Amino acid sequence: MERLNILWTTSDKDTAVNMLAMYAVNAKKKEWWDEINIIIWGGSAKLVAEDTEVRELVAGMIKREISIEACKACADRYNVSDIMKEMGVDVMNRVLVLGASGLVGKALVEELGSNYDVYGTYHSNGWSYERLFRLDINDMESMKSILDEVEPDMVISCMRGDFEKQINLHMAVAKYLKKNGGRLYYCSTANVFDGDVSKPHHEDDETEAESVYGKFKIRCEKELEKILGNDLIILRLPMIWGKESPRMSKLLKDIGEKNEVEVYSNLYLNNNVDVILSRQIHYIIENDLDGIFHLGTEDVMTQHDFIRELVDRLGFRGVELKVSTLPGEKHFLAVLPSRRDMGEEFRIFNEDIIDCLSECR
């Protein structure tokens, strides 16, 4: 006898009838299923599973006997994904994106949505994605509640906010993942090297920061690694652009208002864009890679040259650049990739970034 297990999460009886029927009708099209079993979890799982009216309504719609059972994992706080896999049910891993309303977070939600069960948090600027939770960084209980409800297999952090409160929140997330099993993908920054700007830096270079921000990020990296070990994946990011990024919006606004565009002639950077970055992170997750990653272009350009070429490629003429210099002959703030386990398609250069952004006008 062939048996089909349908996995679904529900929160109320009325929604359950319609949604379960939809899944069951689709399953009925596969004529080889002799038996259809629906496994549910969520706040009302037990109530719905034991309600004979629900079962009769759904069975009546598909003209076939079904069984509905509540997942024990809901009450016992076991890892639902592991239990379902043991029962022969294909389950998408659950991803929680901290800071899902920001540039990088939003790109990640859109990129990962087809392969993972993706949830996100926001502070004040939510968007139309339905699986968003409002997270108050001042309220640790809200973070714990979100973790308990989502039960993520992995968390990607690209959030912003008060440094000390971020530390406390990330420690809570790390301890949850350590206890329940899971990975943390932590977005760090090139500023972990801003104490040594004499050269660009690679993944195995010793961190050295001068700025408060850089020191904060180093502290996060080290504290999280103490808890999670190899289950912490550090993603160091350079300048991140995007067609709707604050950097791009400001550049276009300054040009439109005929303001001077401020640049440094001796600041050497590498760059990335949100859509390419999200694909890189997807690849890292999908291929179970670990360690430290520098996710940017393999070359550096001065800020002056990058902006000048971008402005020209956008088709603007006569744009004034206000050129300044930083102390020293060359000032590097670049995290160059040296790993070769990412695939050739992810070897990117500044020209690729300019190509991508040149369609923004």
Automatic annotation (TrEMBL):
What InterPro entries does UniProt report for this protein, alphabetically? DsrEFH-like, dTDP_dehydrorham_reduct, NAD(P)-bd_dom_sf, RmlD-like-bd
Catalytic EC class: oxidoreductase
**Which GO MF term does the entry hold, naming one?**
dTDP-4-dehydrorhamnose reductase activity
**EC number from the UniProt entry:** 1.1.1.133
Quote the pathway field. Carbohydrate biosynthesis; dTDP-L-rhamnose biosynthesis
Q: Which UniProt keywords apply?
A: NADP, Oxidoreductase
Q: Does the keyword Protein transport apply?
A: no
Boundaries of every RmlD-like substrate binding domain copy: 94-319
Q: Which GO terms describe its biological process?
A: dTDP-rhamnose biosynthetic process
The free-text function statement in the UniProt record for this protein reads: Catalyzes the reduction of dTDP-6-deoxy-L-lyxo-4-hexulose to yield dTDP-L-rhamnose.
UniProt family annotation: Belongs to the dTDP-4-dehydrorhamnose reductase family.
Q: What is this protein called?
A: dTDP-4-dehydrorhamnose reductase
- Origin organism is Dethiosulfatibacter aminovorans DSM 17477
Q: What is the lineage of its organism?
A: Bacteria, Bacillati, Bacillota, Tissierellia, Dethiosulfatibacter
